[in-house]
Specification:
- It is globular and about 35 Å long.
- The chain has 121 residues and is an alpha+beta fold.
- The chain has a five-stranded antiparallel sheet with strand order 1-2-3-5-4, with helices on one face.
- The structure holds adenosine monophosphate.
Length: 121
């Protein structure tokens, strides 16, 4: 799938729409999810045009991948969620229920998060 420059996170990166920023460096931007599903729900996105984790791992330079995941760890430390614990999640494609086609990871925290996947059938 080709990267769509019109996706909402591309607009946030270009400053065309606002975000509630929690962290930024050369590799990543982190901001609060607009519809939080936990007391802490932060999104971390790379600055480059990658559709998904699949695209990111296949196409991004190693330095970019390392820089991004170091940033994710730094965001978690700055949020103070490492002690009680948190969940990092990324959705990929249709079965993963990915809605925004710019690679992002979710950080959920602030309460016990329960089991990983709720059965839907
Ligand atoms: P996903 O299903 O993994 O693609 O999740 C996309 C996430 O982006 C959802 O949790 C949305 O609530 C969140 N989201 C969509 N638009 C915005 C926005 N403008 N600012 C912050 N979060 C957003």
């Amino acid at each position: 799938m080709a990267y769509d420059q019109g996706n909402v996170f591309a607009k946030i990166l270009r400053g065309e729409i606002p975000c509630n920023k929690v962290y930024e460096d050369e590799h990543a931007l982190a901001f609060h999810d607009i519809q939080p599903q936990a007391p802490v729900h932060v999104l971390v996105i790379p600055k480059g045009p990658y559709v998904s984790l699949d695209d990111f791992c296949a196409e991004a330079p190693a330095e970019t991948i390392a820089g991004f995941f170091r940033a994710v760890g730094e965001v978690a430390r700055q949020l103070g969620i490492g002690g009680p614990g948190y969940r990092m999640l990324t959705n990929v494609g249709v079965h993963g229920h990915q809605e925004v086609m710019h690679f992002h990871v979710h950080l959920f925290a602030g309460r016990p998060l329960g089991g990983m996947i709720r059965r839907s059938e």
